[in-house]
Amino acid sequence: MATLSTIMDTNSFRPEHREMLSDDISRLTDKREKVLGNSYRLFYRNPVHLVKGKGQYLWDASGKKYLDVYNNVASIGHCHPAVIEAVNQQMQQINTHTRYLHERILDYSESLLETVPSEINKAMYMCTGSEANDLAIRVAQAYTGGTGIIVTQEAYHGTSELTSGASPALGTGQALASTTRLVQAPDPYRVKTDNMAKWFANAIQEQIDDMERNGIKFAGFLADSIFSSDGVLPGERGFMQAAIETVHANGGVFIADEVQPGFGRTGDAFWGFARHDLVPDMVTLGKPMGNGIPVSGLLAKNDVLSAFSDHIPYFNTFGGNPVSMAAAQAVLQVIKDEKLQEHSQKVGAKLLNELKHLENQYEVVGDVRGAGLFIGFEFVTNKEDKTPDKSLALDSLEVLRDEGILTSVAGPHGNVLKLRPTLAFQEHDIDWLVSSLEKTIKTLR
Fold first, then answer.
1. Which of 65, 281, 355, 413 is spaced 20 to 30 Å from 133 by Cα?
2. For the segment 105-132, what is each residue's pLDDT rounded down to a tens digit?
3. Is residue 366 domain-shared with residue 270, that is, in the same domain?
4. CA–CA distance from 60 to each of 65, 76, 424 (Å)?
5. pTM of the full structure
6. Spatial distance between the Cα atoms of 27 and 83, rounded to a whole number of angstroms
């Protein structure tokens, strides 16, 4: 039997929950089951019917207000007026593809490339993060002549054939590629080591050596620098440097998946990889760059990308279209104008400090860690043996939902709350979140 997907099945509605539903929700779930494919999942045992969003808040069909502490796709806040205006204006002019000239894609690319190290100087665009990571893997293979890709044990990088084969978080029902190798995530709470940098670099070297023994040439290491699907593991700043040096020493490339940690979210830097003073060979971006508009990107060193692009034409019909570029331009400008990176650092630090009080106070809170507005809140049966408490985590999601807090779980055991609000999250929202969490813990204890 296939192992359940940690990102799809842990927090999800199931038919046995149907008896608890209201008539309206039951009607919608029945209709959904009738017309949509069975691969889809709904959040929560009692699904939420959302009809409106603004900033960090959402409203359901009954008018109930929620605090969104999960949705990084609407990165600068739901229905941000700057994005709405930019998309509306461009839609009234033209929307076409990149085989015609247009200023939007060029102007945005210049602005975006200014935010990354100067060695990274080329951009390409797609519609989804999956497509961006798919292309990055293809480029890595062309540049190195290898096929072997290393990811962490609970990584998620997409749903295409290539990316699902490097996304163990999808569960064993989705087979990994024979050329994929896994390393344990660098989790300071659970990994016993005095030198995480060395430990992680050695773990990567072991998998490269295993590839060589099996006749697989190493192509690259694909990771998001906060290891979000592995349970949100920011680590000490700079600890990843030894690992990436190992990747390069073995002829591979480093692909920084910035779909989740990018665009100022971690506070310390504009990009997640920049927290560790890294210069990736490629950077992949997803829908947060357009605040939910289907747009994604690949940024790369010219010599790395050329190994692919000098030989293989690439065309993504509406990747980089003027409307998507207008949304992306608006997002980038808002992040700068509203100083959202600095905001994420300041408000995230205050939120983390308040959550740490719960860690110190309650036996079932094993570890709280994060960077900026990206925090992992881990439930355990007790602090001494650190046994993951998945049931408590999943039950807490339902109580939090009733309290108007929307979030979900991550990590290999499904016991880590993934607190990842939009960057519109404010200091005055902290009390709602923290008090609801404390009430939840008291209720479930």
1. 413
2. 999 999 999 999 999 999 999 999 999 9
3. no
4. 7, 20, 19
5. 0.96
6. 33
